[in-house]
Amino acid sequence: MRPLPRCHSGPAPAKTGKQKWIAPRSRTRGSGKCRHYFPINASCCGTWRRGHFGHPSFEGYSVLAATSGASTIVVDLDAQGRLDLERMAQAVTDKTRLVAICSPNNPTGTTVSRIEFERFHTKVPSDVLILLDEAYAEFVTDPEAFYGLRDVSVLRHPNVVVLRTFSKAYGLAGLRIGYAVGHPRVLDAARATAIPLSLTGLAEVAALASLEAEMELRERIANLIQNRDGLQARLRNTGIAVPEAQGNFVWLPVGEAATGLGEMFDQAGLVVRVFPSMGVRITVGDVNSVAVVADVVAAYQLASRLVQ
Ligand SMILES: Cc1ncc(COP(=O)(O)O)c(C=O)c1O
Q: What is the mean pLDDT of residues 168-190?
């Protein structure tokens, strides 16, 4: 096994958990997933080139595309809060260099199915890079969901790079560590434009220790999934069309009511993420928080009916 250049990683780990089978040049480690997004973007998306994303999706995409001089095309999600891969494929032009697929999508929590991904992949030209952002993959329970580490083959999908992070399920956001898996040629280009010395030894030690503690991780995730599904069911009972939540958060597509509902959460001492005119993203908490969140939504619905 050839060690990665030291300027882009800490000490080479003796083992890399489940990713053991991935050849060294087909993966690259770095300080958080954004650290991978940036050089991949920079190496393929110069001025007059375009990156494509869903909307709403992870805000980092447009910021990072802008830093490499690329313009962006955003394609609205469908009515169920899912990425509209059909329309995203249609929006690709000869200027398109990169399309980011966020699955589960932040903030709506929906996933891309295996059939949808494969269909999309056949429609997108082979010189367009597809970044599959799987920041929340550990929380996915839908068996139909596309799962990059299992479903991407470097031979069949040489233009697909899977991005994974230790920031979410592993809780290491403050230490900044993640990795990319893809074709060696793409990752070599990413390494060449990456910020040197961005990964600390401490982060790498923490990531390896986390991989060792798989049972604890599974328990934590199972608990979270139970609370997420409970929260989703309670919120659906209020009549809101909550999309299928597959991350560690639930999306309330309340449109213009988002700001008012956000204020109500604020008054109740709960921190949520408000997307004005679109919705509210609620990170799943402990089991007691499920009823508290549902009560705030019910109180908001009652108050807004009373003032109509
Ligand atoms: C979809 C998505 N991708 C990437 C990131 C950033 O990951 P990292 O902390 O590994 O840079 C986030 C963080 O919120 C995210 O939601």
A: 93
Q: What is the pTM of this model?
A: 0.89
Cβ-Cβ contacts under 8 Å for 211 (sequence gap 6 or more): 15, 16, 17, 18
Count of CB atoms situated within 10 Å of the CB of 266? 13
pLDDT at 10 over 50: no
Residues of the chain with pLDDT > 90: what percent? 72
* DSSP code, position 4: P
Q: Quote the ligand 1 centre to 36 CA distance (angstroms).
A: 11
Which is it for the CA torsion 69, 27, 52, 256, positive or negative? negative
Dihedrals φ, ψ of 29, to 5°? -105, 160
Please give the distance, rounded to the nearest whole angstrom, from the Cα atom of residue 106 to the centre of ligand 1: 9
HSE-CB at 197 with a 13 A cutoff on CA atoms is 0
Q: What is the mean pLDDT of the chain?
A: 87
Q: What are phi and psi of 283, to 5 degrees?
A: -75, 135
137 lines ligand 1 (CB under 6 A): no
The pLDDT value given to residue 5: 38
pLDDT at 40 over 90: no
| Ligand 1: centre distance to CA 307 (Å) | 39
Taking the C-alpha atoms of residue 43 and residue 189, their distance in angstroms, rounded to an integer, is 6
